[in-house]
Amino acid sequence: MTFLSGFLQGTRQALFENNRDSITITIPQVNPRTVGALIALYERAVSFYASLVNINAYHQPGVEAGKKMAASILDLQTQVQTVIKETSEALDMATLAAKAGSPDEVEAVYKIVRHLAANGRGVALEGNLTDLQSLKVSAS
Question: In CATH, what is the architecture of 61-139?
Answer without folding.
Answer: Orthogonal Bundle (1.10)
